[in-house]
């Protein structure tokens, strides 16, 4: 006798297919396994920002008068932002272009997997690797350069939303730019060049007070500049806000711009993303 109110799966003897969220979690777990299996990639991805931090701090490690901070502490915030840019924008821009060129996307598109699950898997990969890289950088900066972590819940809250919005904005920009390269061979060159330019005009390698105004204006149109500024606000003393063009950390504007990039980046991805190469039908 069939139980009244039984679901469709019970009536037909089959279970309903998993939703996009669950499939996205499984896809993310697979992406993480593939990432950590490539030991050389893991080592170089996580070590690069730390090596750059050591080099820049060794060269420009002097005190910054009137700020209560050192250039070494400044570069801890900058390299944290650059590390997120690397694991999100660069990583997704190159890897998705390679998967498209190798027809991986085309095969995935022909499966029952919801398209959104593929992107959820990539986002999980970015969030985990970005968080791991951030922890390593902050641990190194705290031990070696005396960077002070937030002392109250408000500081941790600011750090949290800056990292989440900044990572999401950079990741969506990376997904969108993955459609620009014509092949996997050109993907690295196409993605790395704009990333390097953005790092210079956003105050990553050069103290923001010495970057020409027109460069800062260009950088202000992209999420990296605001991600750097938000992290400086978390890790540098309040007096260091004098280095910023506006003389303050501008948390409201940071949230507004990064939030706009999350929404705008999503629209850009929906308009430009391709599952197959340009020469494929």
Blueprint of the fold:
Layout: H1 8-12, H2 20-37, H3 39-59, E1 63-64, E2 69-70, H4 71-101, H5 104-109, H6 115-145, H7 153-177, H8 184-201, H9 213-219, H10 223-235, H11 251-272
Antiparallel strand pairs: 1-2
Helix pairs in contact: 2-6, 3-4, 3-6, 4-6, 4-7, 4-8, 4-10, 6-7, 7-10, 7-11, 10-11
Radius of gyration: 21 Å
Low-confidence segments, given as residue ranges, are 1-12
Distance between the termini: 52 Å
Rough shape?
globular
Mean pLDDT: 85
Which band does the percent of strand residues land in?
Answer: under 5%
**How many DSSP helices?**
11
User: Would you count the extended β strands for me?
Assistant: 2
Number of domains: 1
Give helix % range. over 70%
Order of helices and strands: HHHEEHHHHHHHH
How are the strands of the largest sheet arranged? 1-2
Features:
single chain; 281 residues; mainly alpha; 2 strands
Model description:
It is a single chain. The protein is mainly α and 281 residues long. The chain has one domain (18-272). The protein contains eleven helices and two strands, in the order H-H-H-E-E-H-H-H-H-H-H-H-H. It has helices at 8-12, 20-37, 39-59, 71-101, 104-109, 115-145, 153-177, 184-201, 213-219, 223-235, 251-272; strands spanning 63-64, 69-70. Strands 1-2 form a two-stranded antiparallel sheet. The longest helix has 31 residues, at 71-101. The protein is globular and about 65 Å long. The termini are far apart. Residues 1-12 have low confidence and may be disordered.
């Amino acid at each position: 006798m069939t139980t009244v109110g039984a679901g469709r799966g019970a009536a037909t003897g089959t279970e309903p297919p998993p939703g996009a969220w669950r499939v996205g979690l499984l896809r993310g777990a697979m992406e993480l396994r593939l990432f950590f299996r490539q030991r050389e990639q893991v080592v170089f991805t996580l070590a690069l920002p730390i090596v750059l931090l050591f080099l820049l701090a060794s060269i420009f490690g002097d005190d910054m008068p009137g700020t209560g901070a050192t250039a070494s502490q400044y570069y801890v915030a900058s390299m944290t932002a650059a590390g997120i840019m690397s694991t999100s924008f660069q990583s997704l821009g190159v890897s998705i272009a390679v998967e498209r060129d190798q027809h991986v996307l085309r095969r995935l598109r022909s499966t029952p997997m919801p398209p959104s699950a593929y992107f959820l898997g990539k986002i999980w990969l970015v969030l985990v690797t970005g968080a791991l890289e951030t922890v390593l950088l902050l641990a190194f900066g705290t031990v070696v350069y005396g960077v002070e972590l937030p002392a109250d819940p408000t500081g941790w809250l600011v750090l949290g939303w800056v990292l989440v919005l900044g990572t999401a904005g950079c990741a969506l920009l990376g997904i969108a730019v993955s459609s620009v390269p014509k092949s996997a061979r050109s993907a690295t060159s196409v993605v790395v060049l704009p990333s390097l330019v953005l790092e210079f005009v956003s105050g990553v390698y050069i103290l923001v007070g010495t970057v020409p105004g027109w460069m800062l204006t260009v950088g202000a149109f992209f999420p990296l500049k605001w991600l750097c500024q938000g992290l400086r606000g978390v890790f540098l003393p309040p007096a260091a806000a004098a280095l910023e063009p506006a003389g303050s950390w501008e948390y409201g504007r940071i949230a507004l711009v990064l939030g706009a990039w999350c929404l705008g980046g999503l629209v850009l991805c929906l308009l430009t993303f391709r599952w197959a190469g340009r020469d494929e039908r």
